[in-house]
Amino acid sequence: MKNIMEKVINQVTDQKAQSDLLLCKSKSLKMSSQNGDISEYKVASTQILGIRVIKDDKIGLSYTETFDEESLKFMVKQALQNAEMSSPNPNEKLMDLKGCLSDRLSIPEEEIDIKLKTDRTIELESRVKQGDQRVVAVPYNGYSENEYESIYLSSKGREANYFDKSYNIATSALMDQNGKKSNFDDYSIAHTFLELEWDKVAETALFHARNILEEKPLPTAKYSVMFHHDCLKSLMSCFSHFYSAKSAIDKMNPWGTKVGQEVASRDLTIIDHPLFERSFRTSVFDSEGVERKSLTLIERGVLKSLYHNSVTARTLNTTTTGHAVQNPGGALGIGGTDLIITGQNVKPLPSKYLEVIQMDGLYSGANRVNGNFSVAVKGYVWDKGERSMTFGNITLSGNIMNMLKNVDVVGEILVASTDNSFFSVPLIFPELSIGGT
């Protein structure tokens, strides 16, 4: 495939233009079970080759899913035509990088018979149903495995290749008790089939669904709140553009002009770490072939940097941070890797606080310009170290910028999200508004 990509680049070079190519290939197996049988079984594979052409400071994009000679020539022709019709952007250039980078994860594993995979998927649904007589359905119960490979090649001489394989299971428990319903889901992700946590996902779904059946509303008031690690990841991801230089240039980022200023509690430090040893998958390079390294976003409350690709870096007269993202045929963008939140000046847990374990409608209820959000939540009331009740049917409202300024660090040990892509010390957000009874 590399030979084909090199021929394409030569075609563009003959037209006195520069280019880079991104080839993405994937294979997937997905199955779901319902009522003791496999209800969905799907095997799929895709391969897409995308090209970015730069000529006279103009950018042209195109892609193809077929690799015969005529299709490749048409892709190049279309990209050049698109470049002719675009406006000049002197800040978008190929990185002057050469050499090869490899990020290919290879973990020895046993060959697993497909019958075992289908049997375990069906058994997972059965375990949830048998785990509590109040389970009336398992809305989703599935297994998937995915292979992903990419090759980046530029006319400047940079090559970067990536390979990963992952397995995933998920289940849910829908319960009914005298007409009152509850539902909770959980999942497990691993690099080998044998590492999947089948028991854990069933037990977690059942545990929380049982408790949610007993939920009660809370009085409208202000409360101290701790977010379950997956919920905290979702909340931080909803406002991740606060770290994006592109959103700053587009005037959509309230932190866009605050590098060097205090934006969070002095007790808080946030690092983007693509090579963190506890991560599910490290990331060696970005979509421009730039080698990645850890980036301190916030240090003791001060905003130290934004995410940059080469375009935003040139626009703002700085250097790329290795956070370019791009899909074949898509425009160059920006994205983070794994976040690590650490803290200092640890305070004791308050005697009473709320733990949020489920959020519904976060993105639809969020203003991503000013940081306000409103979301339906469920969870537990903790009182003197014990769960005292389950709450639900309430709305939590807040402003992410104010929350980060007023946060309390209440522990030192990093807790990981379920997918091991987000790590944080325990945090309490005081005085958050709850709309209840």
Write the layout of secondary structure elements.
Blueprint: H1 2-14, E1 18-34, E2 37-55, E3 58-64, H2 69-85, E4 99-104, H3 114-131, E5 135-137, E6 141-154, E7 158-177, E8 180-190, H4 198-212, E9 221-227, H5 229-238, H6 245-249, E10 268-272, E11 295-299, E12 302-303, H7 310-315, E13 324-325, E14 333-334, E15 339-343, E16 352-360, E17 372-383, E18 386-399, H8 400-406, E19 408-409, E20 415-416, E21 422-424, E22 427-435
Parallel strand pairs: 4-7, 9-16, 15-21
Antiparallel strand pairs: 1-2, 1-6, 2-3, 5-7, 6-7, 7-8, 9-22, 10-11, 10-15, 11-12, 13-14, 16-17, 17-18, 18-22, 19-22, 20-21
Helix pairs in contact: 3-4
Task: List key phrases describing it.
2 domains, eight-stranded mixed beta sheet, 8 helices, alpha+beta, globular, 437 residues, six-stranded mixed beta sheet, PmbA/TldD fold, single chain
**Rough shape?**
globular
Over the alpha carbons, how many angstroms does the gyration radius reach?
24 Å
Beta-strand content estimate: 35-45%
Low-pLDDT stretches are: none
Helix/strand order: HEEEHEHEEEEHEHHEEEHEEEEEEHEEEE
- The number of E-state strands comes to 22
> Could you estimate the helical fraction of the residues in percent?
10-25%
Mean pLDDT: 96
Count of individual domains:
2
Query: Helices and strands: which structural class?
Result: alpha+beta
**Alpha-carbon distance between the termini?**
62 Å
**Sheet bearing the most strands, described?**
8 strands, mixed
Helices, by number, come to 8
